[in-house]
Design a protein that fits this description.
395 residues, 4 helices, four-stranded mixed sheet
């Protein structure tokens, strides 16, 4: 069931719609579109969600169009995860730790995310007259987090991109839940704007599962009507060289350089290679050289291991934006396996191409749902497929 709410998250009566598309995405914030008649549309609608889903949509654009058949309304918006993309870091921050070093890991890491990523940058109650987001964004209690924190954020960085890239490395994606009331410690901040709706946004990672041995899509399995494969490695870099320059010297395998003032400085180099990102059927490795932006730790020889690890992490994150583009798009028939019951966005599944006798393993990175006339049409996009053993279907 599709639910509608006003700006204060009060439930509104459902409307009759011609079509709704609900586009969930793993690598970025999703979006939605509502198409209905002007007589059905309620301009008090500000938030939309679907029963049993973690995401909530916020209305951002309304277009009213007169046609021969009547007057129609098209409404577009995005999911709340987009809020993280609207904020830039106000200051440098770093958080590095491993689960083995902390007994209550999920509780501890949620505090780190709150302190290093969100509190100083997204909320900012001590840095400006009012918070960036009324009620603020905080880690949700009990949410799973990766078993390693490795976040380096520089002033001006996009908070959403930094957090999402960190989670994607661990097969996770951020989900934001909206709460109607702010945290008690911040209540005094809302008194100056009593007429505005005030919310707390809670963020928690969604974990992708490996279902590749259980969930197989293919025409032979009678659960797809169309399958399309796309490949593009024109912007892929499998080989990174990271160069970091420090004011001090004494690092291992360093180059000594002299600045304009005649002072000696140390320069170290790290490399990061991902064979899976190599362009197909060529005998070269496109190389990208980047300048290290290590921050938040003292750049001295005693911290060399941490400096080099942060350099490699920077290369991993940059490679996410320069990875070879392999996608499989399938129109789904809900016949023997069912969306949300058997599989969900973020899960690793198998896709069988009977015509070419190939099977791929790939993660569901986008689910496009279209609701119209009591029908649901599903289109699923799988990203970065990997070849697997072909599984023929016996009929």
């Amino acid at each position: 069931m599709i639910n509608f709410y006003d700006k204060a998250m009060n439930p509104l009566e459902p409307i009759e719609f011609i079509e709704i598309t609900w586009n969930r995405k793993w690598n970025e914030a999703g979006d939605f579109t509502i198409y209905t008649t002007a007589s059905e549309w309620n301009d008090k609608i500000k938030y939309v969600n679907i029963d049993g889903r973690p995401e909530t949509g916020i209305v951002k654009k309304t277009v009213i169009e007169e046609k021969i058949e009547g007057t129609f309304v098209t409404v577009k918006g995005y999911f709340l995860e987009k809020l993280l993309d609207l904020v830039q870091a106000r200051e440098d921050s770093n958080a590095f730790a491993k689960a083995a070093d902390h007994t209550e890991w999920e509780f501890w890491v949620s505090l780190e995310i709150d302190a290093h990523v969100l509190a100083n940058n997204v909320i900012g109650v001590t840095h400006q007259p009012r918070p960036s987001f009324l009620g603020g964004i905080h880690p949700a209690d009990g949410s799973p987090w990766p078993d390693e924190v490795d976040l380096s954020i520089k002033q001006g960085d996009n908070i959403g991109e930094a957090l999402r890239n960190y989670l994607l490395l661990h097969n996770m994606s951020p989900i934001i839940e909206i709460r109607k009331w702010p945290l008690a410690s911040e209540l005094d901040k809302w008194l100056m704007n009593p007429d505005e709706p005030h919310f707390t946004y809670l963020i928690g990672p969604k974990v992708g599962r490996d279902l590749s041995d259980k969930i197989i899509f293919g025409k032979g399995y009678e659960n797809v009507s169309r399958v399309e494969y796309q490949y593009d490695d024109s912007d892929a870099f499998p080989y990174y060289q990271i160069i970091q320059t420090m004011e001090t010297t004494g690092f291992s395998n360093e180059a000594i350089i002299t600045d304009e003032g005649g002072n000696s400085r140390g320069r170290i180099t790290e490399f990061y290679i991902d064979e899976n990102n190599r362009p197909i059927d060529v005998d070269y490795y496109p190389k990208k050289v980047i300048e290290g932006n290590v921050s938040g730790i003292e750049l001295k020889p005693a911290n060399e291991a941490q400096i080099r690890e942060q350099m490699r992490q920077q290369a991993k994150v940059d490679m996410l934006n320069h990875y070879r583009q392999e996608t499989i798009v399938a129109d789904i028939i809900q016949n023997n396996i069912y969306y949300l019951h058997d599989y969900d966005i973020g899960d690793l599944c198998s896709i069988s191409f009977d015509e070419i006798e190939q099977t791929f393993k790939a993660r569901i990175v986008e689910v496009n749902e279209t609701y119209s006339k009591n029908r649901l049409e599903l289109k699923i996009t799988f990203g970065t497929p990997r070849k697997a053993k072909y599984i023929p279907v016996s009929i």
